[in-house]
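R.M. (postdoc): so does anyone remember the format we settled on? I'll just put the structure tokens first.
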């Protein structure tokens, strides 16, 4: 199972002071520790500004090996499939999954901008960008990951 993780508005509130960057990451990592089969792919725009290894270092040592990659920016991808052209983040995830996983593998995204994903697709745990992944979001993330794992997470 793969979790696609945004940073701004998720691991910390959007537009917060840099001293608060990643202030919500510990909670996300706590959820990940209860779901050892979940791997993380970065779907944040930070991937366009910083090397992947530098971004992976933001995570605790025990979680770092599970941070396995980053999506390609939508503007660098082919125009297929046209049904996702209006949803760039969904397109990035779709491309990553087709390139790196079996088509039947399950995935989930945690993001503060659900409009970047195809509507009604039930693949996004939404965060309020002003709060990031707070306790209610973490509980929902935990529940969704458990459901996707068939309760075995």
């Amino acid at each position: 199972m793969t979790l696609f993780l945004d940073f701004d508005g998720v691991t910390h509130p959007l537009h917060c002071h840099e001293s608060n960057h990643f202030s919500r990451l510990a909670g996300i990592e706590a959820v990940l520790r209860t779901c050892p089969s979940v791997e993380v792919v970065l779907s944040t725009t930070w991937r366009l500004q910083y090397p992947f290894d530098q971004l992976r270092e933001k995570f605790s040592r025990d979680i770092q090996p599970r941070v396995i990659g980053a999506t390609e920016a939508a503007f660098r991808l082919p125009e297929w499939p046209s049904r996702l052209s209006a949803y760039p983040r969904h397109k990035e995830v779709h491309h990553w999954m087709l390139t790196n996983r079996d088509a039947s593998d399950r995935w989930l995204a945690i993001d503060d901008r659900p409009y970047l994903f195809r509507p009604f697709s039930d693949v996004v745990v939404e965060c309020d960008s002003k709060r990031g992944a707070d306790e209610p979001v973490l509980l929902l993330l935990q529940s969704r990951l458990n459901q996707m794992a068939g309760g075995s997470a």
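R.M.: ...and that's the designed sequence above, right after the tokens. Also worth knowing: The longest helix spans residues 135-148. Residues 114 and 126 are 6 Å apart (CA to CA).
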